[in-house]
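Hi everyone, sorry if this is the wrong subforum. Our group has a chain we'd like a structural model of before ordering constructs, and none of us has done structure prediction before. Sequence below.
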Amino acid sequence: MCGFATHNAIGFEEKPLLLPFIFHLEAQKMQVSAQKVVFIHYTLTNEEGEKIDSSDGHEPLAYIHGHGNIIPGLENALMGKTAGDKIKVTIPPEEAYGTRDEELIQSVPIDAFHGVDEILPGMQFHTDTPDGAQLVTVVGVRGNEVILDGNHPMSGLTLNFDVEVTEVREATEEELAHGHVHGPGGHHH
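Answer:
Right subforum, don't worry. Here is the predicted structure as tokens:
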């Protein structure tokens, strides 16, 4: 055991040295785990290698691990990582935005779009469903009918992520209560 000498009335006595233990604890990096705030830089590409999204040139993305703020496959791949770690991971549709569900493609009367002068393919709208708000994309217009797709725009895609963990910290009580990160890279109230 490391020690240091102290002088007392009798002579020198060896005492245990606690500093190496303290420094060792401080040097350990916090790991990505549930309830931690994680900051990542990422590039997302499809199977053809085309860039879909990236944090390049922006603040890192911040999320609370375990709160469903990012897709499950990426969250699982980041578990246990620390600041400075870099990973490349391929996420299948089932662990990303799901597989395509053809039942989510529906035709609705154009009259349902009050106040919208022109409806074009690619437009997106939020609609209320029994499960809450859902994003739908216009995929076509046929006469007085609008064809909507309720699948996530990236459903059915295998996604490739190139990620660098830039920081891991404890989430505040307020962040945990709200379910999202506050401040840089997160939500601003």
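For your construct planning: The two ends are 52 Å apart (CA to CA). The first helix runs from residue 19 to 27.
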